[in-house]
Specification:
The protein is α+β, with helices and mostly antiparallel strands. The protein has four helices and eleven strands; from the N terminus they run H-E-E-E-E-E-E-H-E-H-E-E-H-E-E. It folds into two domains: 138 residues, no CATH class; 81 residues, Trna Endonuclease, Chain: A, domain 1 (3-Layer(aba) Sandwich). Helices cover 30% and strands 27% of the residues.
C-alpha cells in the first residue's frame, strides 16, 4: 500500500502545485509566491504530523516587506517561509482564520480510493478564502486601487462576531470604508436568508451609531462580490 507521505508528495506535485500556479502563484523553494515589486506575498503548505497510515497538513499565508536589495526583482531570491513566522511579517494567518470556522483547519491524507478528496478540498479553500485575502492585503501594501480604510480591527469586531456566532452566521472578516459606504466582508452566501436578516440588524447597528463617514452598509462575500446593501 502506498504510504501517506508518498500520496502527499503526489498530491502536491500533480494537483496542488499546478492549481496554485494556475491561480498566479509561482514556486520558490517550496513556497508559493505572488510576484510583487515591494512585498513578499507567500503561501506555504505545512505538514502537522504523519506516519505510514495518515498525514495531516495545513496552509499558512504571510505578507512581508522586501529588503531594499530585493525590490524591483520579478521574484524574491529567498522568499520567507510563512509556516515559520519570525515576527517581521506585516500579516500572517492560518487558512482556517480566513474561513467560516475561524479555527485551525487541516486536511488528512491516508491510503485509499478517496485520498485525493483532501487535496482538492484544500485547493478550494485556497482559491475561495486564502488567495483573495492574500491578494487584497498585497494590493493594500503596494498602494493599489480598490483598498479601503480599515474601520474596525479584528479585535474590535470580536463582540459583533460573537453575536454572529450565536446566530450561526459566519463572522465579519473585515470592515472597511469605501467612500461613504461601510463594507463588511465575510463568507456569506446570497442564498442564506438567515445571514441576510442577521446582517441587516448588524448594519442597522452600525448606521445607528451616527458615524458621518458612511451612510450605507454593503455586505460582500470573501471574493468581494456584493451580496446586500443596507
Amino acid at each position: 500500500m502506498t504510504a501517506a507521505r508518498e500520496l502527499f508528495a503526489e498530491g502536491m506535485r500533480y494537483h496542488l502545485a499546478p492549481a496554485l500556479r494556475a491561480m498566479g502563484l509561482t514556486d520558490q523553494r517550496q513556497v508559493f509566491v505572488l510576484p510583487a515589486p515591494l512585498h513578499w506575498a507567500v503561501l506555504g503548505v505545512r505538514v502537522l504530523d504523519a506516519d505510514g497510515h495518515a498525514l495531516r497538513y495545513t496552509v499558512d499565508l504571510a505578507l512581508s516587506a522586501k529588503p531594499d536589495a530585493e525590490r524591483d526583482r520579478p521574484l524574491p531570491v529567498w522568499p520567507p517561509d510563512p509556516s515559520a513566522p519570525d515576527g517581521s511579517e506585516l500579516w500572517h494567518a492560518r487558512i482556517g482564520e480566513l474561513m467560516p470556522v475561524d479555527d485551525e483547519v487541516c486536511w488528512e491524507i491516508s491510503p485509499g480510493p478517496r485520498w485525493l478528496v483532501a487535496v482538492e478540498d484544500s485547493i478550494a479553500a485556497v482559491r475561495h478564502y486564502g488567495l483573495p485575502e492574500l491578494r487584497r492585503r498585497l494590493a493594500a501594501a503596494e498602494g493599489g486601487p480598490g483598498t479601503g480604510e480599515t474601520y474596525l480591527s479584528a479585535a474590535e469586531l470580536d463582540e459583533v462576531n460573537a453575536a454572529l456566532l450565536s446566530a450561526a452566521v459566519a463572522r465579519i472578516q473585515r470592515a472597511e470604508l469605501d467612500g461613504k459606504t461601510l463594507v463588511l466582508t465575510g463568507a456569506w452566501s446570497r442564498s442564506d436568508p438567515v445571514a441576510r436578516e442577521v446582517l441587516a440588524g448588524v448594519a442597522g447597528g452600525f448606521l445607528a451609531a451616527g458615524d458621518d463617514r458612511f451612510v450605507q452598509v454593503r455586505c460582500t462575500d470573501s471574493l468581494g462580490r456584493e451580496l446586500w446593501l443596507f
